[in-house]
Amino acid sequence: MTPSRLLILEMQGFLFLMMATIAWKILTRRIPLSGLLMHKDSGGNLSPGRVQLLLATITACGSYLAEVAKSTDGKLPDVSANWLYVLGGSSSIYVLEKAWSMWSNRKGN
Amino acid sequence: MGQAVTALGTINWDPTSLAGYVACFFLGMLALSIIVLIWWAPPHKRQIDLTHLLNEVNGQASMSRFQLLLFTFVIAISVFELVMKNGALPDIPEGVLTLLGISATTYAVGKGISYSQPQTLEPDPTPEDVIRAEQAAATAQSHAAAAQQAAAAAGQAATTARVAQATTVGAAVASQVSAAVAKDAAVDANVAKDVSVAAATIADASTNPTGGSNASGE
Question: What backbone phi and psi angles, to 5 degrees, belong to B2?
């Protein structure tokens, strides 16, 4: 066994153990996800900006993993410009909603 | 330098391979230490605590952190898959870098907005805080109930005292009335006595007029 093969096995084990650890801790609520989709400062209402960002993120991740699985040329597949626009827009909506919430809170106070 | 045949295959002992094995050992131990410190370190001495991995300062989960975590894992899995296939590091396309840049920028801007709101930085109460507050509320409630009972008892005692005072006043008035009645009765008795003496004198004078004049003349 060459050192590079050994290193690949080690890193493979470490990567999957870390992912399994984080997934397990999220599922068993040792890493809490409470308030992930809620406004932080307006009574805990559901935040549409957060929901759309979560949906866009999960969809983009699934799509990219499918591209990687289909890739045969040994190169990392590029992310299409459309997906970048979607994620950029989604993130902008999230940040603008957050900024609006801050501004309206200050105005209210 | 020679070769050794082990259960893992043939191992070369030339200097380059030896350095590679040392690097593998070091990285393996590092990875193992991280996993051990996450899982098996005592809770009060745990050096790698992932509890707040996705949390904001106020204790609630952060959407931008969650997004960054997902993208990081997806890209890591993809790169690792290609390394396994080709045995070499692939080039990272610009689109992937832009994707990670968008995610990291969202996280940084979100963090800046959060830190500009002092009220959102106040930590949410922990379960221990909630339990302590509930215990304090229960204690305060029991104290309030005891105070109400004491107030009710004091009210009853005050009523009883007022009744006793009124009874005493009534008894004093009754005794005064009795004394007045007795005094009147005594006066009446004296008057009756005087009337009877006067009647006896009149009767005596009518039955013996001379004796009466003599008597008056003497």
Answer: -120, -155
B135: its two tokens: 């215990």
Sign of dihedral through CA atoms B53, B56, B60, B65? negative
ipTM of model: 0.88
Q: Is the pTM of this model over 0.90?
A: no
Contact A10 B31 (CB under 8 A): yes
Question: Do A65 and B77 make contact, defined as CB atoms within 8 angstroms?
Answer: yes
The per-residue pLDDT string of chain A (109 residues; one tens digit each, 9 = 90 and over) reads 788 888 888 888 998 899 999 999 999 988 988 888 887 765 678 888 899 999 999 999 999 999 888 888 878 899 999 999 999 999 999 999 888 887 887 776 6
CB half-sphere exposure, B66, CA atoms < 13 A = 24
The answer, for B7 touching chain A at a CB cutoff of 8 Å, is no
Ordered DSSP codes for B78-121:
HHHHHHHHHSSPPPPPHHHHHHHHHHHHHHHHHHHHHHT-HHHH
The DSSP letter of residue A72 is -
Q: Which of A43, A46, A44 is nearest to A54 (CA)?
A: A46
**Which residue in B has a C-alpha nearest to residue A44's C-alpha?**
B60
Question: At residue B89, what is the residue type?
Answer: L
Torsion angles phi and psi, residue B4, rounded to 5: -130, 135
